[in-house]
Every structure is written in structure tokens, then in C-alpha cells.
């Protein structure tokens, strides 16, 4: 089970980095004092976010970049957003089943997205004075167990 799940802070890499294969991640230089400049791949792994197709206001056939399921992340002003199709391509290409990420506050502490194959987990409650709960994942006996922490 553990070998079939990809974990990242932000999201999946676009296919223009070695076809989106995770093997290229080992080539990220370490230490990495300036990821935006020194490793665009690391930057994408930190800042990419999922997006539901319904949230896209224009059709996804306008540029070659759009056809990959990756679009500029206008919300953050950096990196990209990725669709369910992009996620499915990444999972299939890498022999994976799911992605677990963090990076975005979730009111309930977690959110299941993109056809149930992407899980966002946020472990900090009341982030920046907000009212969100916290969550974590326990990998136990070949199962993922979601633990939501009620901090109200």
C-alpha cells in the first residue's frame, strides 16, 4: 500500500518534467536554498494545487499546456493547478493509486478530491485565526485511517 501512494506538500509534477515520472525527483539538488530558481520541479511539488474541471471557466483545448491538464495557478500567482485527468495520467504513469498532500487549509481538516484519488490533509487547526479543524493520516495494517481532531 505505501508504495502506491505519492505524498507531496503541494501537488504532482507536470509532464514536462521527465514525463511526470517520480524518478526525476531524486535529481532535485540538496540543499535547496532557492527552489524557485534552482529547481523548478521542486517549486511545482511545493506549490501546485488541484482544481475541479467545473472551476475552469474556459475550455481546456486552447494551448498545449492546457492539454496536459495543467494550467497556470492564478490564485497563487506561481506554479500550476492540475485536473483529475492530469492526476490520473500521473498515477498511471507511475504505478500509483493515490496522492496525499497538504498545503491548503480544509475546514474539516481534510478533503477528498479528484475522483477520490487525491487527499488533502491539513494538520494545523485554527490556522491564521480561522475556524478549521486539524487532521492526520495513520497508515496501519495496509489501510489509511483519517483522524480528524476536533479543536472547538
From TrEMBL:
InterPro entries: Calcineurin-like_PHP, Metallo-depent_PP-like, PP1_catalytic_subunit, Ser/Thr-sp_prot-phosphatase. Pfam families: Metallophos. Residues 2-152 form the Serine/threonine specific protein phosphatases domain. One of its GO terms (molecular function) is protein serine/threonine phosphatase activity. This is Serine/threonine specific protein phosphatases domain-containing protein. GO terms for cellular component: cytoplasm; nucleus. CDD domains: MPP_PPP_family. PANTHER family: SERINE/THREONINE PROTEIN PHOSPHATASE, SERINE_THREONINE-PROTEIN PHOSPHATASE.
Amino acid at each position: 500500500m505505501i508504495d502506491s501512494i505519492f505524498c507531496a506538500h503541494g501537488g504532482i509534477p507536470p509532464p514536462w518534467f521527465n514525463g511526470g515520472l517520480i524518478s526525476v525527483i531524486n535529481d532535485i539538488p540538496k540543499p535547496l536554498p532557492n527552489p524557485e530558481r534552482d529547481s523548478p520541479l521542486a517549486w511545482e511539488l511545493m506549490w501546485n494545487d488541484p482544481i475541479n474541471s467545473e472551476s475552469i471557466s474556459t475550455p481546456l483545448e486552447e494551448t498545449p499546456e492546457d492539454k496536459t491538464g495543467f494550467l497556470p495557478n492564478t490564485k497563487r500567482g506561481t506554479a500550476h493547478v492540475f485536473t483529475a485527468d492530469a492526476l490520473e495520467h500521473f498515477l498511471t504513469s507511475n504505478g500509483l493509486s493515490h496522492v496525499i498532500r497538504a498545503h491548503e487549509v480544509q475546514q474539516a481538516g481534510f478533503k477528498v478530491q479528484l475522483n477520490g484519488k487525491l487527499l488533502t490533509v491539513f494538520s494545523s487547526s485554527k490556522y491564521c485565526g480561522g475556524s478549521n479543524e486539524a487532521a492526520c493520516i495513520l497508515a496501519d495494517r495496509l489501510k489509511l485511517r483519517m483522524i480528524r481532531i476536533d479543536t472547538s
